[in-house]
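Field: sequence (string)
Field: structure_tokens (string)

Example rows 1 and 2, in order.
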Amino acid sequence: MDLQTLKRLKGISDPSRPLFDFMGKDELAGNLFRLTLTEGRIKKEQARGQIALEHVAHEVGARVRKTMAEETGVYPESLPIAADIKLVKKGLKTTRKSFSQIDDLEQQRLYEAEALAAVPAAPVDDVFPDCPDCSAGSATSHSGSVHCSSGSLASGGTVAHCNCDYCRGS
């Protein structure tokens, strides 16, 4: 059937719109396959002239149509039309605008900077700057030291004898 008849059969109300704008993935894949095979066969047979080219296109198209029907049980012209690509594009633009309002990168950077500023400094060589024992240069196990067995937060327990902010978990 010709293109206008196919558009009417599929229920596309605007005859000036391309059929491709309403094709789903199966129909698009079938068409691409048909076009690719037709091009290959024209080159292989070195077909020349309008009549010969139309004949090759018709034969390849008939085979692809038959194969699609055999594999899916549905002829390509009977496949339902997909959402209008113009409406899909419009929906994507609207969604992108909505997400861009949600994904305010500057605000995210501010939140990250505030969160990083609130994190206590990591210990250097098992020395905690806020721990009085560490500040005093104690080399033995104590609250604030990862080797501390006093039961401090640093050793996985509760604060026993050190009142520094780090050991209390403040």
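Row 2 begins here:
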Amino acid sequence: MIAVITGVAVAYVSQTAHVTQRTYQVAALTSEQAQLSADSQLLGDQLDRLTSAERVDAAAQQLGMRPAAQWSYIAAPAPVVAAPPAPKQASDPQNTDALTRLVAVLSGSFGTRNAEAAGR
């Protein structure tokens, strides 16, 4: 009887110690997370300050650059997009498997016919 009571007491103390240790770990991790969040906020503020338009303008002027007096725009021709050739249709659709027919249909859907229609 004493051995059973001793065993239960040891198990209880062990569990209590384990729970206490985990509680300290949770508290430490929560504190670390709060510190990392504060650091992230500070770094975000610093990044915003460093990338502000006023700072970039001031740095450009220190490097000898000056604002443009007049803006110019150049009209660029539309790029030509080459589409892959349309897939060859099987002469006997009953001899091809379903996957091959699906690929042929999808390739035809996204092939040259749609590219020509989009260019019109």
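free_text_note (row 2): The chain has a mean pLDDT of 82.
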